[in-house]
Amino acid sequence: MVEWNLVQLPQIEIAAIDNGLAFPFKHPDSWRAYPYHWAWLAQAKVPFSQEIRELVLPQLSDMNFVQDLCDDLYVLFKVSSLDDLYVLFKVSSQDDLYVLFKVSSQDDLYVLFSSQDDLYVLFKQDKGFDRHLFEKQMSVMRGQILNLTQALKDGRSPVQLVQMPAVIVER
């Protein structure tokens, strides 16, 4: 028998944002407050760490990586059913482990994937998917990646990053 008072329960962090905010199809027409006012936090003024720069810069500087990322997002955005609720949990910050759950109408929870192939099977049939809108979203994201790459190279902070001019990079 397990003594539950001796077991350390995992910490699960949940965040949600809709596709339109996470992947906008255009830059905002004017400056707006960021969710949770993160830009006003003291930490936002601290330049990105050397560890983050060394981890992220090589990948973002590789245009093949950026295109593969866009291709993967294309697969992810083709959701199978808008009537179902899907929840993505970050299970472990150390291992960067994510798990996607489907909540059924019977309030049951199903683990749906552990691999990209499983995701593809799940997400490939959204009837509302718009390829043209997706390409606009990716153009904005490529511009954001370009700005992030430059900010990391220059040793800038997150606040300085969001103050950079908006860029659109079309394929």
Automatic annotation (TrEMBL):
It comes from Timema douglasi (Walking stick). Its EC number is 2.7.1.67. Residues 1-171 form the PI3K/PI4K catalytic domain. InterPro entries: Lsb6/PI4K2 (IPR039756), PI3/4_kinase_cat_dom (IPR000403). GO terms for cellular component: endosome; lysosomal membrane; plasma membrane; trans-Golgi network. This is Phosphatidylinositol 4-kinase type 2. GO terms for molecular function: 1-phosphatidylinositol 4-kinase activity; ATP binding. Belongs to the PI3/PI4-kinase family. Type II PI4K subfamily. GO terms for biological process: endosome organization; Golgi organization; phosphatidylinositol phosphate biosynthetic process. It is an enzyme of class 2 (transferase). It is a peripheral membrane protein.
